[in-house]
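Colleagues,

For the teaching module next term, I've prepared a clean inverse folding example: a structure given as tokens, and then the sequence designed for it. I'd like students to try predicting residues themselves before seeing the answer, so please don't circulate the second half yet.
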């Protein structure tokens, strides 16, 4: 697929909008005559070994970069390959510092630090100078990726489109996505940017993937007997209910969700290394990218006259929330998540078969209600809670621990535990026994 140009690069400007949570925007009003950099150190020289001044604040930010890279799987792999680019490219250094400081504030549930505005402003200034020259070097491409992702992750379609159009234009100037001048890690970064923009814009990704999706075993590994059984049973239910060929797509998605989630857990437990020595090797983020591309046909409506059944669309949209908050480890407070939850709510509210869905796909809908309930706008959360309550009443679940296990039962049905009512022994036994049955 040939990338579509986004217009002249001289018309493409990086947005100066602040990358902050909407609630916090009201808290940080500045006077019109106050300059953002008034109380900050002078701009560091781009010729320094590391393009920042060795103040305690900047050293703290440098530590944040290390912590975010080491302890999360957010960065496309190999994760440590981004350090050299941050050291030699001043614009990329500043947008990276801004992004990780914001990410850390989300994770730590603290206020957004003012340093993110300084670093963001410096990167904008340097990047706009390069865009005027039509630069398309590695640092410039990755800077635009970061700015575009910030807009996509916050669910801002207008600025997202501006950034992704500009990025695609510069990729074309560089010789296309497969150009030898674009390193493997940057190519992965561009693909992530394209996929996240497609979510916010509700469209198809612009760039053709280089990963071969014809052999999913390469990316997902061997499926266990339990996975095969569960995926096949779920696909059969979907096909019987809808008659759609998308049921086969759902089989592969269950396979990917389970295996990639298990790998994610193994990485954090130290049982598997997250990174491989070479950028050309298969990375964890490659597996996540393949999974996200499989999910896209479920939720994207190409023709409104023949749109997918709501069960597919809501399943696909919930998978996106799971992919970005669990597998990509982005903060659940980002604006993209309540936007997706709102789409799910709208699709189900307009579905005339909602009560039938709640009865037929209890495991799927309960999983969706819990995933959405954690990220939805406060105004929408009562609706998701009410739908979850309907399912819990049907299944007669009241114990908090069992409710949480039931919410995970869609992906991990083998972990479900059903409590049988207590069996009261006669007085001579001296004991009451509660029997637990485990489904395998």
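(Answer key — instructors only)
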């Amino acid at each position: 697929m040939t990338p579509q140009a986004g217009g002249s690069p001289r018309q493409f400007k990086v947005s100066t909008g602040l990358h902050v949570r909407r609630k916090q925007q009201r808290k940080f009003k500045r006077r019109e005559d106050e300059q953002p950099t008034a109380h900050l150190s002078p701009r560091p020289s781009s010729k320094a070994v590391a393009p920042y001044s060795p103040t305690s604040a900047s050293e703290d930010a440098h530590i944040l970069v290390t912590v975010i890279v080491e302890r999360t799987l957010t960065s496309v792999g190999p994760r440590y390959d981004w350090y050299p680019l941050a050291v030699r490219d001043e614009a990329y250094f500043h947008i990276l510092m801004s992004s990780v400081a914001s990410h850390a504030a989300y994770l730590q549930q603290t206020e957004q630090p003012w340093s993110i505005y300084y670093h963001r402003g410096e990167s904008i200034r340097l990047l706009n100078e390069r865009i005027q020259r039509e630069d398309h070097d590695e640092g410039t491409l990755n800077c635009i990726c970061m700015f575009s992702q910030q807009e996509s992750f916050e669910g801002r379609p207008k600025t997202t489109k501006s950034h992704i159009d500009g990025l695609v234009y510069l990729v074309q100037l560089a010789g296309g996505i497969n150009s030898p001048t674009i390193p493997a890690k940057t190519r992965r970064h561009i693909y992530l940017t394209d996929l996240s923009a497609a979510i916010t814009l509700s469209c198809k990704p612009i760039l053709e993937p280089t990963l071969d999706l014809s052999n999913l075993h390469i990316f997902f590994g061997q499926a266990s007997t339990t996975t095969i059984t569960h995926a096949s049973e779920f696909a059969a239910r979907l096909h019987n209910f809808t008659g759609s060929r998308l049921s086969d797509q759902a089989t592969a998605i269950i396979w990917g969700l389970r295996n990639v989630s298990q790998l994610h857990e193994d990485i954090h437990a130290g049982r598997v290394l997250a990174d491989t020595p070479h950028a050309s090797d298969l990375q964890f983020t490659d597996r996540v990218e393949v999974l996200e591309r499989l999910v896209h046909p479920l939720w994207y409506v190409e023709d409104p006259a023949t749109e997918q059944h709501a069960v597919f669309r809501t399943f696909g949209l919930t998978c996106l929330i799971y992919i970005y908050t669990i597998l990509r480890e982005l903060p659940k407070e980002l604006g993209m998540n309540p936007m997706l939850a709102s789409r799910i709510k709208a699709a189900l509210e307009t579905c005339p078969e909602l009560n039938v869905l709640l009865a037929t796909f209890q495991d799927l809908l309960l999983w969706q209600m819990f995933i959405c309930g954690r990220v939805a706008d406060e105004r929408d959360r009562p609706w998701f809670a009410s739908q979850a309550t309907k399912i819990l009443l049907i299944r007669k679940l009241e114990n908090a621990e069992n409710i949480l296990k039931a919410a995970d039962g869609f992906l991990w049905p083998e972990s479900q535990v059903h409590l049988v009512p207590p069996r009261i022994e006669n007085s001579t036994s001296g004991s009451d026994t509660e029997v637990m049955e485990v489904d395998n």
